[in-house]
Give the backbone structure.
Amino acid sequence: MKFTKMHGAGNDYVYVNCFEERVDNPEQVAIQVSNRNFGVGSDGLILIMPSSVADIRMRMFNSDGSESEMCGNGIRCVAKYAYDHGIIANKEITAETGAGILTLKLITDGRNKVERVRVNMGKPRLTRAEIPMLGEPTAQVVAEPLNIMHTTFAISCVSMGNPHCVIFVDDVENFQVEKYGPLIENHEFFPRRTNVEFVQVISRSEVRQRTWERGAGETLACGTGASAVCVAGVLNGLTEKKVLNHLSGGDLELEWAEDGYLYMTGPATEVFSGEIDL
């Protein structure tokens, strides 16, 4: 199977061009290629596919083989691959995902290669039913207490097409993400599990984030998570609607615009291509 390794702010995936390749068992392939000792090494597998309703389609599988609805860093790389490799020719495209159809604007460099991508991530979904989360279906979750191992966290939950639980902390660099992340990910409140963002507010326009991703563990970046953090910051009165988010692998720009949509802008990088015997 031919593949291309790409990353968005350090959130790395193995990408397969399914206009030319066929992947019969993506769940198992994701586990195999993601292994950093015996495979290619990645946070998961992303398939770049034809679509009957958009310019391109993305399917994304975590390193444990589970399929996720959406990946903000992944969708930017899908757009870069499709443009740089001649699958699409326009600099404004639509992409079909498990979270719906998204619109992307491509920003190219002097070589006409995609350098950055601005993604309309859609409108945040804020009720328990939409996240999904147990409890009153129409209620929002903002600074709600959650007890984990004798520690009480104030959680704010948002869906960006996939579930996120945002927790603001004083010192994110030294926070025990690997201890609390999996416990919250698999908490009974979240029937489909959840991604967990631990966030330190630097100023009203700047934050620092670490992410425990559902099905992958801690990753260097999470685009849907950064989008959820932007929303949670506003709902908690901690940040403005436009923020710069410093993730472990790089920076993302987020804006919860007046039209109600969340816009994310960030880099997309191609690392190398190869072939693996499955």
